Write the structure tokens for this entry.
Amino acid sequence: MEFMPKTSDCAIEVDYCQKYCEKKRIGGDVFLSKKLKEQSRVLAVLSDGLGSGVKAGVLATLTSVMGLNYMGSFRDPAKAAKSIMETLPVCSKRHISYSTFSMVDIDFDKEVRIVEYDNPPVLITRNGSLMDTKKQKADVLRADKEPVQIQVSGFDAKIGDRIVMFSDGVSQSGIGSKELPFGWGIERVSDFILEKIALNPEISAHELSRAIVEKSWLNNSHKALDDITCGVIYFRNPRRLLIMTGPPYDRQKDKLLASLVEEFPGKKIICGGTTANIISRETGRKVQVRLDRLSADLPPESIMDGADLVTEGILTIGRAAKYLENKTELDLFTDDPGAKIVKLMLDSDVINFVVGTRINEFHQDPNMPVDLEIRRNVIKKISKLLEEQYYKETTIQYI
Amino acid sequence: MSKKFKVSICSGTTCYVLGGAQMMLLEDCLPVDIKDDVEVVGSSCLQKCHEPNAKPPFVQINDYVMESASLTKVIDYIREHR
């Protein structure tokens, strides 16, 4: 596969799930994450503001935004934590800080640094068990000059590792109930996480965070008595997607096109009638148009062995770009070929585009009733959207 | 048993925007008298729009390629040739 450009061998999936305290429209837990593409770093902060509601929400947002920005510029989360502690207001009645936090900084060679202040401990799993990272205590001065302790730790991540961070809404869920009089507790939370991973060793950050939050909610008999938040970071083998669109400029390269599809290690989408025909001709596999699955305003999709999706070209790609630009137009029930492309894209980490540059002259005919854009430009736009708004890694190869 | 007429409808971009979208519904529009003789399939692209002075949308009925195709034209053609 020499034609394909090199891409990273580890993907970092970050996701979180959250339920706000009953009858509150604003929560006091905030989870923020950010990818700094130039430095290949990933930052994440979970902050829990005192109480719940507007005031807690403001404090937690303040803390997490400061956390992200300081970590981004200091390169040392402990330093960032110190600055935050010096500025964070302290409750005048109860003399406790207005918000607690856990911050994670992952750099390009997967070195992880973690700083925690008063949140439930950040859990790290490796090979199906918890990993002890030897947390070190550091003293810092609070805004009211009161000394408090933060915990600093670090480790080198490997593929398969997970970092799980949650607010006390998780660890204290079920408190006061018959089954869990003292709440769910860190130990039981860890057991739950390990059990989930044992059942499904490849469980995504998305699913795991949801499972933990759902369980906490269940512990409270289907109520959120406090804000419940769980964020998960998962180091995994990247899921790859190939999107092939357009016939090669030079007809001699038709063979290369077909072999790229054959050899690609991941999911494959072919967009374009001519492109599909070329691959069908070169591989001897039939393309079958699904006339039984018509969508209102896009040409139907087809099926072909060896491809996960085969669609028409520019109209469908244009629709996919529109969905990526405006997420609200795409809901669970949108099922046209454009939406299917987007769903496959969002489910992948690395997306390789192979764009044929031969132009269909008829598309440029001024009598065409719709504007047909040049394929190359639409793909460039999609690739930019995927990188900037969806944190995907993309490459474009012209052929 | 293969049917007397095999109709391939081009679902390529050009044909689709120039009227082929309607053609996709051919199967449902076939009158009773010819319905049993016709098999409708889709084609990802019949490659006819690359030719000079092409008039999409295209439909292929057995070996005959129909240009500027429409539902009525296809039905009339089949009635004439059965």
In short: The interface with chain A takes residues 9-14, 16-18, 20-21, 24-25, 27, 40-45, 47, 49-50, 54, 56 of chain B (CB under 8 Å).
